[in-house]
Specification:
This protein has helices at residues 3-15, 18-24, and strands at residues 27-31, 35-36, 41-47, 55-59, 70-76, 82-89, 93-100, 107-108, 113-115, 119-124, 127-129, 133-139, 147-150, 153-163, 169-175, 183-190, 195-205, 216-221, 224-229, 233-238, 241-250, 253-262, 272-274, 280-286, 292-310, 313-326, 333-343. It is mainly beta. Strands 18, 19, 20, 21, 22, 23, 24, 25, 26 and 27 form a ten-stranded antiparallel sheet that branches. Strands 10-12-15-14-13-16-17-11 form an eight-stranded mixed sheet, with no helix packed on it.
Length: 348
Protein backbone atom coordinates (compact mmCIF):
# COMPACT_ATOMS: atom_id res chain seq x y z
CA UNK A 1 0.00 0.00 0.00
CA UNK A 2 1.23 3.48 -0.82
CA UNK A 3 2.70 5.20 2.28
CA UNK A 4 0.69 8.37 1.62
CA UNK A 5 -2.56 6.42 1.34
CA UNK A 6 -1.72 4.47 4.50
CA UNK A 7 -1.06 7.72 6.41
CA UNK A 8 -4.35 9.29 5.20
CA UNK A 9 -6.29 6.22 6.30
CA UNK A 10 -4.75 6.27 9.77
CA UNK A 11 -5.41 10.00 10.08
CA UNK A 12 -9.06 9.51 9.08
CA UNK A 13 -9.52 6.77 11.66
CA UNK A 14 -7.94 8.92 14.36
CA UNK A 15 -10.39 11.72 13.55
CA UNK A 16 -13.39 9.42 14.12
CA UNK A 17 -14.00 10.11 17.80
CA UNK A 18 -16.71 8.16 19.65
CA UNK A 19 -19.03 11.18 19.30
CA UNK A 20 -18.63 11.42 15.54
CA UNK A 21 -18.86 7.65 15.06
CA UNK A 22 -22.20 7.54 16.94
CA UNK A 23 -23.60 10.57 15.13
CA UNK A 24 -23.04 8.95 11.74
CA UNK A 25 -25.43 6.05 12.44
CA UNK A 26 -28.28 7.70 14.35
CA UNK A 27 -31.52 5.76 14.68
CA UNK A 28 -34.68 6.32 16.76
CA UNK A 29 -36.17 3.13 18.19
CA UNK A 30 -38.99 4.59 20.25
CA UNK A 31 -40.53 7.35 22.37
CA UNK A 32 -41.25 7.13 26.09
CA UNK A 33 -44.70 8.74 25.67
CA UNK A 34 -47.32 8.70 22.92
CA UNK A 35 -49.07 11.96 23.87
CA UNK A 36 -48.57 15.13 25.86
CA UNK A 37 -48.91 18.91 25.84
CA UNK A 38 -46.94 22.06 26.63
CA UNK A 39 -44.42 21.31 29.36
CA UNK A 40 -44.40 17.55 28.74
CA UNK A 41 -41.00 15.90 29.20
CA UNK A 42 -40.28 12.70 27.25
CA UNK A 43 -37.35 10.55 26.15
CA UNK A 44 -36.33 9.79 22.58
CA UNK A 45 -34.77 6.31 22.60
CA UNK A 46 -32.31 4.97 20.08
CA UNK A 47 -28.64 5.00 19.23
CA UNK A 48 -26.01 7.16 17.59
CA UNK A 49 -27.32 10.49 18.89
CA UNK A 50 -23.80 11.63 19.75
CA UNK A 51 -22.31 12.86 22.99
CA UNK A 52 -23.30 16.46 22.34
CA UNK A 53 -26.91 17.58 22.47
CA UNK A 54 -28.68 17.06 19.14
CA UNK A 55 -31.36 19.33 17.68
CA UNK A 56 -34.94 18.08 17.94
CA UNK A 57 -38.04 19.27 16.06
CA UNK A 58 -41.70 18.38 15.78
CA UNK A 59 -42.25 17.05 12.27
CA UNK A 60 -45.16 16.22 10.01
CA UNK A 61 -45.74 12.54 9.30
CA UNK A 62 -43.83 12.99 6.04
CA UNK A 63 -40.81 14.67 7.58
CA UNK A 64 -41.31 18.44 7.29
CA UNK A 65 -40.55 20.66 10.28
CA UNK A 66 -43.70 22.14 11.82
CA UNK A 67 -43.78 25.93 12.13
CA UNK A 68 -44.76 27.69 15.37
CA UNK A 69 -43.45 24.81 17.49
CA UNK A 70 -40.42 24.57 19.76
CA UNK A 71 -38.67 21.67 21.49
CA UNK A 72 -35.94 22.06 24.13
CA UNK A 73 -33.31 19.35 24.58
CA UNK A 74 -33.01 18.87 28.34
CA UNK A 75 -30.27 16.23 28.37
CA UNK A 76 -28.44 13.71 26.25
CA UNK A 77 -26.75 10.65 27.75
CA UNK A 78 -23.05 10.07 27.07
CA UNK A 79 -23.78 6.84 25.23
CA UNK A 80 -25.85 8.73 22.66
CA UNK A 81 -28.92 6.52 23.12
CA UNK A 82 -31.38 8.64 25.08
CA UNK A 83 -32.29 12.28 24.53
CA UNK A 84 -34.71 13.94 26.95
CA UNK A 85 -36.79 16.80 25.56
CA UNK A 86 -39.33 19.37 26.75
CA UNK A 87 -42.27 20.50 24.59
CA UNK A 88 -42.12 24.31 24.80
CA UNK A 89 -44.46 25.41 22.00
CA UNK A 90 -46.85 23.29 19.98
CA UNK A 91 -50.10 22.93 18.08
CA UNK A 92 -52.83 20.34 18.44
CA UNK A 93 -52.19 17.33 16.23
CA UNK A 94 -50.21 14.15 15.65
CA UNK A 95 -46.54 14.49 14.80
CA UNK A 96 -43.27 12.64 14.51
CA UNK A 97 -40.02 13.70 16.14
CA UNK A 98 -37.02 14.66 14.05
CA UNK A 99 -33.59 14.41 15.67
CA UNK A 100 -30.41 15.79 14.11
CA UNK A 101 -27.12 14.83 15.80
CA UNK A 102 -24.36 17.44 15.78
CA UNK A 103 -22.56 16.97 12.48
CA UNK A 104 -24.99 14.27 11.34
CA UNK A 105 -28.08 13.86 9.21
CA UNK A 106 -31.58 14.17 10.70
CA UNK A 107 -33.53 11.00 11.50
CA UNK A 108 -37.29 10.61 11.93
CA UNK A 109 -39.13 8.57 14.54
CA UNK A 110 -41.41 5.77 13.40
CA UNK A 111 -43.61 6.33 16.46
CA UNK A 112 -45.91 9.35 16.57
CA UNK A 113 -46.50 11.84 19.36
CA UNK A 114 -49.88 13.54 19.79
CA UNK A 115 -50.18 17.05 21.19
CA UNK A 116 -53.49 17.10 23.06
CA UNK A 117 -55.53 19.84 24.65
CA UNK A 118 -56.81 19.95 28.24
CA UNK A 119 -59.75 17.89 29.53
CA UNK A 120 -61.80 19.02 32.54
CA UNK A 121 -62.39 15.78 34.45
CA UNK A 122 -64.06 17.11 37.58
CA UNK A 123 -65.45 20.31 39.12
CA UNK A 124 -66.11 20.45 42.87
CA UNK A 125 -68.04 21.41 44.81
CA UNK A 126 -71.08 21.40 42.54
CA UNK A 127 -72.55 24.37 44.42
CA UNK A 128 -70.78 27.57 45.43
CA UNK A 129 -71.33 31.26 46.09
CA UNK A 130 -69.79 34.10 44.12
CA UNK A 131 -66.21 34.81 45.25
CA UNK A 132 -66.07 31.21 46.50
CA UNK A 133 -63.38 28.68 45.59
CA UNK A 134 -63.95 25.83 43.16
CA UNK A 135 -61.48 23.06 42.36
CA UNK A 136 -60.99 21.62 38.87
CA UNK A 137 -59.19 18.41 37.98
CA UNK A 138 -57.74 18.92 34.51
CA UNK A 139 -55.86 16.38 32.41
CA UNK A 140 -53.04 17.71 30.20
CA UNK A 141 -53.35 21.20 31.68
CA UNK A 142 -49.72 22.02 30.69
CA UNK A 143 -46.99 23.35 32.97
CA UNK A 144 -48.23 26.96 32.87
CA UNK A 145 -51.39 28.38 34.45
CA UNK A 146 -54.41 28.15 32.24
CA UNK A 147 -57.40 30.47 31.96
CA UNK A 148 -60.81 29.63 33.45
CA UNK A 149 -64.11 31.25 32.47
CA UNK A 150 -67.76 30.82 33.45
CA UNK A 151 -70.30 32.39 31.13
CA UNK A 152 -67.51 34.31 29.45
CA UNK A 153 -66.39 35.85 32.76
CA UNK A 154 -62.83 35.21 33.93
CA UNK A 155 -62.32 33.33 37.17
CA UNK A 156 -59.08 34.01 39.00
CA UNK A 157 -56.74 31.00 38.98
CA UNK A 158 -55.52 30.84 42.58
CA UNK A 159 -53.25 27.86 42.04
CA UNK A 160 -52.45 25.14 39.53
CA UNK A 161 -50.58 22.10 40.83
CA UNK A 162 -49.42 19.11 38.80
CA UNK A 163 -50.39 15.68 40.14
CA UNK A 164 -48.42 12.48 39.71
CA UNK A 165 -49.94 9.71 37.63
CA UNK A 166 -49.89 7.78 34.37
CA UNK A 167 -52.14 10.38 32.75
CA UNK A 168 -50.85 13.78 33.90
CA UNK A 169 -53.51 15.81 35.72
CA UNK A 170 -53.44 19.12 37.54
CA UNK A 171 -55.48 20.47 40.43
CA UNK A 172 -56.68 23.97 39.54
CA UNK A 173 -58.25 26.14 42.23
CA UNK A 174 -60.22 29.18 41.01
CA UNK A 175 -62.14 32.02 42.64
CA UNK A 176 -65.58 32.59 41.14
CA UNK A 177 -66.32 36.03 39.64
CA UNK A 178 -68.26 38.36 41.95
CA UNK A 179 -70.63 39.40 39.16
CA UNK A 180 -71.66 35.89 38.11
CA UNK A 181 -75.46 35.66 37.92
CA UNK A 182 -77.30 33.08 39.99
CA UNK A 183 -77.69 29.84 38.06
CA UNK A 184 -75.93 26.74 36.81
CA UNK A 185 -72.80 27.50 34.78
CA UNK A 186 -70.38 25.75 32.47
CA UNK A 187 -66.69 25.90 33.35
CA UNK A 188 -64.12 26.31 30.55
CA UNK A 189 -60.39 25.71 31.01
CA UNK A 190 -58.11 26.99 28.24
CA UNK A 191 -54.38 27.02 27.63
CA UNK A 192 -52.17 27.85 24.64
CA UNK A 193 -52.94 24.49 23.01
CA UNK A 194 -56.71 24.20 23.35
CA UNK A 195 -59.70 24.33 25.67
CA UNK A 196 -62.34 22.11 27.23
CA UNK A 197 -65.71 22.79 28.82
CA UNK A 198 -67.51 21.02 31.65
CA UNK A 199 -71.16 21.76 30.91
CA UNK A 200 -73.66 22.70 33.66
CA UNK A 201 -70.87 22.02 36.14
CA UNK A 202 -71.50 24.34 39.10
CA UNK A 203 -74.56 26.06 40.57
CA UNK A 204 -73.69 29.58 41.68
CA UNK A 205 -75.62 31.84 44.05
CA UNK A 206 -75.10 34.98 46.10
CA UNK A 207 -74.84 37.59 43.36
CA UNK A 208 -75.87 41.05 44.54
CA UNK A 209 -77.07 41.99 41.06
CA UNK A 210 -78.66 39.68 38.49
CA UNK A 211 -76.77 40.71 35.38
CA UNK A 212 -75.33 39.04 32.29
CA UNK A 213 -72.58 40.41 30.02
CA UNK A 214 -73.45 41.62 26.53
CA UNK A 215 -74.32 38.98 23.88
CA UNK A 216 -71.35 36.87 22.76
CA UNK A 217 -70.36 33.51 21.36
CA UNK A 218 -67.07 31.74 21.94
CA UNK A 219 -66.24 28.29 20.62
CA UNK A 220 -63.48 25.87 19.78
CA UNK A 221 -64.11 24.67 16.22
CA UNK A 222 -61.77 21.73 15.64
CA UNK A 223 -58.31 23.15 16.38
CA UNK A 224 -59.30 26.81 15.86
CA UNK A 225 -61.10 29.46 17.91
CA UNK A 226 -64.26 31.30 16.91
CA UNK A 227 -65.43 34.45 18.72
CA UNK A 228 -68.35 36.76 18.05
CA UNK A 229 -69.62 39.49 20.35
CA UNK A 230 -71.70 42.63 20.65
CA UNK A 231 -73.68 43.64 17.59
CA UNK A 232 -72.32 40.67 15.64
CA UNK A 233 -74.49 38.37 17.76
CA UNK A 234 -78.10 38.41 16.58
CA UNK A 235 -81.35 36.71 17.54
CA UNK A 236 -84.46 36.01 15.45
CA UNK A 237 -87.71 34.21 16.18
CA UNK A 238 -89.60 32.41 13.44
CA UNK A 239 -92.03 29.48 13.49
CA UNK A 240 -91.47 28.89 17.19
CA UNK A 241 -87.67 28.64 16.89
CA UNK A 242 -85.29 31.13 18.48
CA UNK A 243 -82.08 31.33 16.42
CA UNK A 244 -79.05 32.92 18.05
CA UNK A 245 -76.27 33.52 15.54
CA UNK A 246 -72.78 35.01 15.75
CA UNK A 247 -70.48 36.19 12.95
CA UNK A 248 -66.70 36.29 13.24
CA UNK A 249 -63.39 35.65 11.49
CA UNK A 250 -62.39 32.04 11.13
CA UNK A 251 -59.23 30.67 9.47
CA UNK A 252 -59.12 33.36 6.79
CA UNK A 253 -62.87 33.14 6.11
CA UNK A 254 -66.06 34.53 7.65
CA UNK A 255 -67.71 32.11 10.03
CA UNK A 256 -71.29 32.06 11.28
CA UNK A 257 -72.34 29.89 14.21
CA UNK A 258 -76.07 29.33 14.70
CA UNK A 259 -77.91 27.85 17.67
CA UNK A 260 -81.59 26.97 17.32
CA UNK A 261 -83.74 26.80 20.47
CA UNK A 262 -87.46 26.17 20.89
CA UNK A 263 -89.30 29.30 22.00
CA UNK A 264 -90.10 27.44 25.24
CA UNK A 265 -86.48 28.20 26.27
CA UNK A 266 -87.95 31.51 27.48
CA UNK A 267 -90.09 29.73 30.09
CA UNK A 268 -88.65 26.21 30.64
CA UNK A 269 -87.28 25.37 34.06
CA UNK A 270 -83.51 25.77 34.15
CA UNK A 271 -81.00 24.28 33.75
CA UNK A 272 -82.30 22.65 30.57
CA UNK A 273 -80.88 20.67 27.66
CA UNK A 274 -81.98 20.55 24.01
CA UNK A 275 -80.85 17.74 21.74
CA UNK A 276 -83.28 17.44 18.84
CA UNK A 277 -85.54 19.31 16.42
CA UNK A 278 -86.50 22.16 16.66
CA UNK A 279 -83.18 22.74 18.40
CA UNK A 280 -80.27 22.91 15.93
CA UNK A 281 -76.55 23.60 15.70
CA UNK A 282 -74.88 24.72 12.45
CA UNK A 283 -71.64 26.36 11.36
CA UNK A 284 -71.07 28.11 8.03
CA UNK A 285 -67.97 29.56 6.40
CA UNK A 286 -67.80 31.92 3.44
CA UNK A 287 -64.38 32.25 1.82
CA UNK A 288 -62.92 35.23 -0.05
CA UNK A 289 -64.59 34.03 -3.25
CA UNK A 290 -68.03 34.07 -1.54
CA UNK A 291 -68.17 30.26 -1.61
CA UNK A 292 -70.25 28.93 1.28
CA UNK A 293 -69.90 25.64 3.15
CA UNK A 294 -72.31 24.53 5.87
CA UNK A 295 -71.88 21.89 8.59
CA UNK A 296 -74.98 20.73 10.50
CA UNK A 297 -75.38 18.46 13.52
CA UNK A 298 -77.72 15.48 13.43
CA UNK A 299 -80.33 15.21 16.19
CA UNK A 300 -78.13 12.78 18.14
CA UNK A 301 -74.94 14.73 17.45
CA UNK A 302 -75.27 17.81 19.65
CA UNK A 303 -76.50 19.25 22.93
CA UNK A 304 -77.38 22.85 23.73
CA UNK A 305 -77.37 23.65 27.44
CA UNK A 306 -79.42 26.63 28.67
CA UNK A 307 -78.21 27.65 32.10
CA UNK A 308 -79.36 31.13 33.10
CA UNK A 309 -82.01 33.69 32.16
CA UNK A 310 -81.74 37.30 33.26
CA UNK A 311 -84.17 39.76 31.77
CA UNK A 312 -84.09 39.43 27.99
CA UNK A 313 -80.78 37.52 27.95
CA UNK A 314 -80.15 33.80 28.09
CA UNK A 315 -76.79 32.09 28.72
CA UNK A 316 -75.59 28.58 28.13
CA UNK A 317 -73.17 26.33 26.31
CA UNK A 318 -73.12 23.74 23.53
CA UNK A 319 -71.19 20.85 22.03
CA UNK A 320 -71.60 18.79 18.91
CA UNK A 321 -70.22 16.96 15.91
CA UNK A 322 -71.23 18.61 12.64
CA UNK A 323 -71.42 17.02 9.20
CA UNK A 324 -70.88 18.92 5.96
CA UNK A 325 -74.31 19.37 4.37
CA UNK A 326 -73.50 21.83 1.57
CA UNK A 327 -70.40 23.13 -0.18
CA UNK A 328 -67.07 21.44 -0.73
CA UNK A 329 -64.63 22.93 1.80
CA UNK A 330 -62.81 20.49 4.06
CA UNK A 331 -63.19 18.87 6.50
CA UNK A 332 -66.25 16.67 6.14
CA UNK A 333 -66.88 16.79 9.88
CA UNK A 334 -66.23 19.41 12.55
CA UNK A 335 -66.24 19.24 16.33
CA UNK A 336 -67.66 22.34 18.04
CA UNK A 337 -67.81 23.28 21.72
CA UNK A 338 -68.39 26.63 23.37
CA UNK A 339 -70.63 29.03 25.27
CA UNK A 340 -73.10 31.79 24.42
CA UNK A 341 -75.09 34.71 25.75
CA UNK A 342 -77.97 35.72 23.50
CA UNK A 343 -81.12 37.79 23.34
CA UNK A 344 -84.46 36.20 24.15
CA UNK A 345 -87.31 37.04 21.79
CA UNK A 346 -90.82 36.06 22.86
CA UNK A 347 -93.81 36.00 20.53
CA UNK A 348 -96.45 38.45 21.62
Amino acid sequence: MNTRIRFSLVLSLLCLTPASLSAQGAAITGLSLSEGTLGTVLDILGSGFGQKKPKVFLSTLTGEKVKKTSVKVVSNDEGGGTTTILIKKALLGTFKLMLQPKGGDPVLSDDTFEIVGPTVQDVSPGEAEVKGLVTLTVAQASSKKGKVTLGGLKAKVVSQTANEGVTPTSTVVVKLPSTLATGTWEVTFANKVGQDTAHQAVSVSGAKKEKLPKPRMSAAVDDSTFVSKGKKVDATLADGVLTISGVGKFDGATGTLRLGLPDSAATDDLPAQYVADPAALTFETVDKSDVSTVWTADDDGFTIYVNVRVGSLVAGSFEGTLLRTSGEADPETRVVEGSFIGELIVES
